[in-house]
Amino acid sequence: MKLNQYTSVAHATQALRKRGFKDDFKLEEKKWMRNLNNKNKYKSGDMSIVEYHRFEGMSNPSDLSILFAVETHSGDKGIIVSSYGMYADMDLVEFMDKVRVKERASA
Q: Would the pLDDT of 81 be above 80?
């Protein structure tokens, strides 16, 4: 996994969208992610994290977020953004902890 190459969540989102991560996902009922674009639902085992990036707010160090670029077993690719630290959604954290990180091929 490479180091964060983006300066902000907005910058990362824009770059990842250009790379095909166009779908948005939302955790529902603490047990699945719903693709908000096509309404498909996925359990944690149906998804993988392609890459992730952490950010600290420029004006407020407690403004922490993490962006996940994910893909599903059916080919959906998208983005999940979450706070971490004090303001973390613990249900989302628990779900994402179960999603496997996709291994990158060696260059």
A: yes
- What pLDDT, on the 0 to 100 scale, is given for residue 61? 55
Dist CA 26 CA 63 (whole Å): 20
Residue 107, pLDDT above cutoff 70:
no
Q: pTM for this structure?
A: 0.85
3-class secondary-structure state, position 91 = helix
pLDDT in tens, 50-69: 999 998 866 555 568 999 99
Residue 68's φ and ψ, nearest 5 degrees, are -110, 130
Per-position b or e across 44-67, b if 16+ CB within 10 A of its CB: beebbbbbbbebeeeeeeeebbbb
Classify residue 2 as left (phi > 0), alpha (psi -120 to 50) or beta.
Answer: beta
Contact 83/9 with Cβ under 8 angstroms? no
Nearest Cα neighbor of 69 from 28, 31, 19, 11 is: 19
